[in-house]
Amino acid sequence: MLDGILGLSIVTTERMSESESSKLIEQLECAELAKQHFIEGAISFEDYLDILNLCEVDIDNYLITVEDNLAVAGITL
Known about the structure:
Number of helices: 4
Strand content: under 5%
Helix content: 55-70%
Number of strands: 0
Largest sheet: none
Shape: globular
Order of helices and strands: HHHH
Distance between the termini: 16 Å
């Protein structure tokens, strides 16, 4: 359940080069690994967000998405 709430995705366009696509895939792989470590309790939420920031995730939009996912799951903050 937590994996779905913290879901990550990448947005691509038809005009992306192969190197841009490869970079996005690497960033997503890194972010997914960080998510798994957070879920397992190996890293803190702050460390998780720091890693997402290094992966160039828009943290503000990401946290809004997480809040929306929590609401859909019936979990309120």
